[in-house]
What does this fold into?
Amino acid sequence: MATERIIIAVLYVLLAPFVIGLLDGFDRKISARMQGRRGPSVLQPFFDLKKLFEKEFLTANKAQLFMIRSYLVFIVLSGVLFFGGFDILLVVFSLSTAAMFLILASTSTHSPYSAQGTHRELVQIMSCEPMELLVAVGFYLAIGTFNVNEIIKTSISPIAYLPGFFVGFVFILTIKFRKSPFDIATSHHAHQEVIKGVTSEMVGKEYGMVTLAEWYENAILLGIVGLFFLNSNPVSIVCAIIAILVVWFLEILIDNTSARVKWQLMLKLAWGVTIVAAGMNLLLLEIIRG
Amino acid sequence: MSTIHKSPWLLHYDGSSCNGCDIEVLACTTPVYDVERFGVINTGNPMHADIFLITGGINSQNEAVVKQIYEQMPQPKVVIAVGTCACTGGIFKECYNIKGGADTVIPVDIYVPGCAARPESIIDGVVKGIALFKEKAAALKASENAN
It folds into this structure.
């Protein structure tokens, strides 16, 4: 059992960038088709990433490179904890630590675009964090454990107890994936008023590492979506993969059909959905348990 | 093997112009011309850009801006002057405040003539710039190895 957990964690480290990079490529292709364009090759994210590592490295502050390396390492650590079947609460905390390094990296230079992006990134973190924590709490209340390894061994999928938590989590995924209408700190296509926000001052390999870290993080987030559907029956793995693909397509659809909002509305919506969906679910769960 | 020619990201700067070429550059990113199919992304950030696309001439006010943008771009980079004004100064050439084309302040690799330059010829210029990247990336690698 322990070796199985180690193998899955190692597979995550090795394969997550390829899988998520490819999903990103299909994302750009599907987005282009939705807009009536041909769009780039599905391998485009890999070409972009390789190019970034080949560019000349310029930096205003050498500490930035260290911060970004730490950001990448903590994201990968969170993923290893999650896919290795450890405590999901620890995964959430480790992700927050990683986010702190991103903030330190973007504030280590004096660019006004970077500073503005950082402020907005903090607002985004503030919008997402309650829901992320509540998801961990939800799994505990439904299954009685924080351990991912034990959550997947339950007889009924957690989604049966946690539909509200699932809705809330999918809602904040739009913010986490930096998709419109909530791509206020930085967008995948850099033509907004804060240029590239948090990543404005990150050149060449630094930006490459941030992209790679985002892929690793997206793998964890999609993994949590899958966790809602997993149970002791192996067929549930298929259900989990289908659920992940449906959620992923939904995010692309939302991205292409909505315009960016201001941070005030984002915060209200994110907390509103968290309180209503997850809060109601939490209340009902307590009543059933009580 | 370098992949820079497969993902050239653009930075567009409009100097002293009538904005005609400016609008044609934006037309390249619309569904009709879809320049993203070559992996091109229109970025607003010099630090992420590979191709510097200049429209319009250089005047005494934007001279410093163009120089700074050029210097903020990491190597390897390609500069494309789009439209007659960016190539030579165009009809504004004799004005008291105009220095001339983009090549009066920074080295220009590709010239795309036209008033206004057609989206087809702009894309043609970008594709020629992409071809130049292979040479530039190889030269950069050679100079790095020499050091």
About this structure: The longest helix of chain B spans residues 119-146. Chain B has a mean pLDDT of 87. Residues 92 and 143 of chain B are 40 Å apart (CA to CA).
